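Interim report to the steering committee. The following record documents the input for DNA alkylation repair protein (230 residues).
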Amino acid sequence: MHPWNQTVKAALEPLANAENASFMKAYMRDQYTFYGIQSTPRRAALKTLFTKSQLPSLDELSGVIDELWLQPEREFQMVAVDLLIKLKTQLPLAMLKDLEHWLTTKSWWDSVDMLATHILASYFVRFPEETAQVIGNWRQSENIWLRRSTLLYQLKFKQNTDRALLFELIRENQSDKEFFIQKAIGWALREYSKTDAESVVRFIETERIEGIAKREGLKWLKSKQLIRTL
């Protein structure tokens, strides 16, 4: 194991909490084992490791992340995500290929959504042409997590959102009844409604968006009493 990961493990193991671990495992539908460490104490325990002088080099980074991804406790994957976010403006273009592996391995919303909204989003800003090609492939994938990523990567773009592309991606996924796809559609619409409420309402009406996607898409507007019926 890479020395950085060994230090991570040594810092996390003493914080293990069996009761929390059982609750976390149940919450994640028994897919992963846990130490039982919540995000705030986990990050506090590793704060020194995330200082500039302690971070692994970019040349080592893919291997470090891969090792963390292989560990059974879910906290290690969350550390990996935090590490990628810390270095997101420095990640080389070649690592975009690795991102697909991390999105499609041990996939669940906790890792996928952070990778999409931080890492894929950053790649798109820094390498728009190359990333657009990758997104073009992922949008046609049978893998729901890759398609969820294409729906969510623009979540924080606000006025820089490519509205036409977002709506096109939603249309492509609209008939998919998978919960995590419908939830992503609603989340994307809800966030974009904060920038362009009129377009979102019109889109929901025109495309007859229903169910959880509609409820989520209109949630912010209704909470602000900007819309009452639809």
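The two ends are 55 Å apart (CA to CA). The committee is asked to note this result when reviewing the revised timeline.
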